[in-house]
Fold this sequence. Notes:
mainly alpha; 0% strand; YihY/virulence factor BrkB family protein
Amino acid sequence: MFEGVRPQWANLERLQEAVRTCPDRHPRSGAAAMLVARTVRSALRVRIIGLAAESAFFSLLSLPSLLLGLVGTLGHLSSVLGHQTVVEIRAWMLDLAATVLTAEAVQTTVEPLVDDFLGGAHGGVLSLTFLVSLWSGSRAMSVFIEAITIAYGLEGMRGYLRRRLLAFVAYLGALLFALVVLPAVVAGPDALRALLPAADTYLHLGYWPLVGLLSLGSIVALYTLSVPVRTSLVRQLPGAIAAVLILLCGTVGLRLYLEASFGQVNLYGPLTAPIIIVIWLYLTALAVLAGSSLNAEIDAMWPVAETARARAELAARRQASAVRLAERHEQALQRIAQAREQDTRVAESRAGKNSEVQSSPRPDRAAAARRRLARPRRRRR
């Protein structure tokens, strides 16, 4: 009796209509629901799941060479930064490696490698590590720029070479930023604690908020740089805040999952650390791309003059390109029709000549020979 009856939420058309008319029926909460629905649709259209995986792969590929290059550079700058700062950075990196690797792997592999690079790596080795890091890291940055541009609907504003050059410059700027911020983040709390012993509690409480603010500023800078037109930093804050929150929740969830899965028995052995790193990089890329989709839909619902003008210009350019393509298609069809008409006329003329030849009477050679024999011959004088 009720086999053909489906609930209202299972009817896709009615669900889309309900989402579309939600802002009119609920002016306050409807706009937020519409924004969430449009963000999810934009994320699926941009394919942030696949692009996040691509970015995570290239980020993982660039991570060893990046860390070794930074360590080698800090080793050459030990006279400027101070020996104590380099020692603290070394301890921080070993502690960071110990969180994802076993103690034996840190002692036998990571620690000797870090000591060699901190002692002053050879210029050729250092240059090679930076080249590998620049190529793979700029490729990951290019994925972010391309996805953010597509989310804003401005994918035709930049060419391939311009996008890769922008990704290279952005990644190089990120390296310089990390080179400046890393010593400050690692050695800064100890220096302030030595200067202000009474501020130890406040430093402990303010460390992670400072890291969060630096992450927020980096994401805002990436969003602003990736949009082909000039936009204000305030317009990029909602997506950046959403990206930081998604990354924070994802990191907490990943930690709980790892404690539940690998807390007792390690099934993957030495592959555990790369798996954890690539999952975290994937969550980071997914959070950044989801935040960019949110910013793009906010701009689509409440556009500013710059992006609206760029979309109109891009639409006019695409329309002109479509008109030119249609004209070329029409000209090609006309040339084909003329060629076919000419071939038809040639075939008809050839057929007419053949029919005339076939209809003309053929000479009777035997009758002509008999007439020649019947003629009276002239007598010779």
